[in-house]
């Protein structure tokens, strides 16, 4: 399945962020900067989705996601936190890996396929460990682009 997921090297951040609201703001800013979007609009959309229920996926991963009229294909941002934070995940585990996703407004199935691709990646213990061990954002980018290219084949 080819989800045609965009990932820019500028959309990956390793940082210390100490709260869920600050993480959502950082995801919105990364998505905006990397893909030419309005950070305020993306943040509003992420917060509206989060209000429906936590996007804490479990196993230390959160996948905050939303849609935007200004994006042409599903686009990803990745944040790896230096210290875990509470994200109200279903398994109650704190989060250290955030995969932010913004998809086109009318991309129903495409948005779901992108979420599924991210979910598959984050359920893979070996891949999750490689992301946790990546020494810098460029290494995480290389790992992720190889993974998504392989999945699309």
From TrEMBL:
Parts of the chain that traverse the membrane: none
InterPro entries: PTrfase/Anion_transptr (IPR016152), PTS_EIIA_type-2_dom (IPR002178), PTS_SugarTrans_NitroReg (IPR051541)
PROSITE patterns: PTS_EIIA_TYPE_2 (PS51094)
GO molecular function, one term: protein kinase activator activity
A Pfam family that the UniProt record links to this protein: PTS_EIIA_2
PTS EIIA type-2 domain span: 4-147
PANTHER family the UniProt entry points to: NITROGEN REGULATORY PROTEIN (PTHR47738:SF1), PTS SYSTEM FRUCTOSE-LIKE EIIA COMPONENT-RELATED (PTHR47738)
Name of this chain's protein: PtsN, PTS system, nitrogen regulatory IIA component
Organism: Erythrobacter dokdonensis DSW-74
